Amino acid sequence: MTRARTAHDLAHGGSVSAVLRDGARIEIRRLRPSDAPVLRSAFEHLSAESRRLRFISSKDQLSERELRYLTDVDGHFHEALAASDPRTGEGLGVARFIRLQDEPHVAEVAVTVIDEWQHRGLGTLLLERLVERARSEGITHFSALISSDNTAMLELLRVAGAEIEPVAGGAGVLEYRTLLADPGLAVDLRDALRSAADGTLRVPTRLRELLVALARQLRL
Ligand SMILES: CC(C)(COP(=O)(O)OP(=O)(O)OC[C@H]1O[C@@H](n2cnc3c(N)ncnc32)[C@H](O)[C@@H]1OP(=O)(O)O)[C@@H](O)C(=O)NCCC(=O)NCCS
What we know:
The protein is about 40% helix and about 25% strand. By secondary structure, it is of the alpha+beta class.
């Protein structure tokens, strides 16, 4: 599936499939109100550390009101792209932006991946899709409140923007601004290589072997 087609489907609430660098297949689509139980369960399976990093405070559960807010998204002011395991329906992660009221070209961003699925490239993939959604909704910058020890999220933000700068800070939390860059050719190439590797894109066997080797070498 082309990037334009993927972006179109996600923008209209459709589901798209993607392949992680270890070959795992996932589904991505916008959260819906009916996803509240899946989101609650995913939250309950997060480690205390991941919850602290996501909410910058200790948090044991999401209230009904929070669940409603987090799943009732319109795609323009508030977008939330969720990844799930197509084999089990389990929720694996969410990338979300919420537009700032007083600066509508800026949106606050947050990404969460359940602990068992971290370090497999899922956070990067979700963020890339979210950047595309944000750009097509006229958002030019992401803002993020990040705990100063959250190197994972900082690394992740680097994939989303050309510039990242701390704009404010205090009590172990920094606010970063990121100019959203076009993910461009590198993402197209990576998607094509993965599709060739898992057989979705049909190419002659020898070429497929070469593409798989190239994808490994480039860690795509
Ligand atoms: C931040 C988070 C979403 C990253 O998700 P992920 O799926 O593990 O991210 P990726 O696998 O795509 O990793 C992207 C890059 O981030 C860096 N990274 C990931 N985890 C890291 C860690 N624990 N420490 C340092 N760097 C890390 C690496 O550079 C990695 O690239 P590499 O795998 O090629 O080396 C995940 O760690 C998470 O959910 N954390 C808890 C919630 C949170 O902090 N959210 C951010 C609040 S705004």
